[in-house]
Write a structure and sequence with these properties.
0% strand
Length: 81
């Protein structure tokens, strides 16, 4: 049981927290690069990278919830990929 708890904390909770921190960072990057007066190609690339990273994080979490919802309803702590 302790191994399941450790797996849930490390693979579930910590990845979610790191991902949310990344999402906040990407949002800040989008706001900063979108408001700059001097638009360079490098800034556009970083803006697109931040947007793609945020969208991919959100879609991965939606897919994980959809795939694992049945196992979570049955009180399993871990969802197999």
């Amino acid at each position: 049981m302790e191994a399941d708890w450790f797996d849930w904390v490390t693979e579930g909770l910590l990845t979610l927290l790191v991902g949310l921190l990344g999402l906040v960072g990407n949002t800040c990057s989008v706001l900063i690069f979108a408001r700059q007066r001097i638009q360079r190609v490098f800034h556009h690339l970083l803006l697109q990278l931040a947007i793609f990273d945020a969208v991919s994080f959100i879609l991965r979490k939606i897919a994980t919830v959809g795939r694992c919802s049945n196992r979570w309803q049955q009180n399993h702590l871990q969802c197999d990929s």
